[in-house]
Specification:
Blueprint (H helix, E strand, L loop, with lengths): L1 H19 L3 H30 L6
Helix pairs in contact: 1-2
Length: 59
């Protein structure tokens, strides 16, 4: 699940950027993006899980 790993890494980077800035607006944007990346990672991981649980399609 490379895309999930990527999104989780981006979420961590955005959270770190939020901690590193003194600008309130920038911090809010970084935190919002971190939340967005985490939600997307969770959604994609769930989709992968549901896909794996489906039976094989007969050909």
């Amino acid at each position: 699940m490379d895309e999930v790993d990527y999104l989780e890494r981006r979420a961590s980077e955005e959270a770190a950027a939020a901690e590193a800035t003194d600008c309130r607006e920038a911090r809010c944007i970084h935190l919002a993006m971190a939340d967005h990346y985490r939600r997307m990672a969770k959604e994609i991981a769930g989709a992968h899980s549901r896909l794996e649980s489906l039976p094989e399609h007969p050909r």
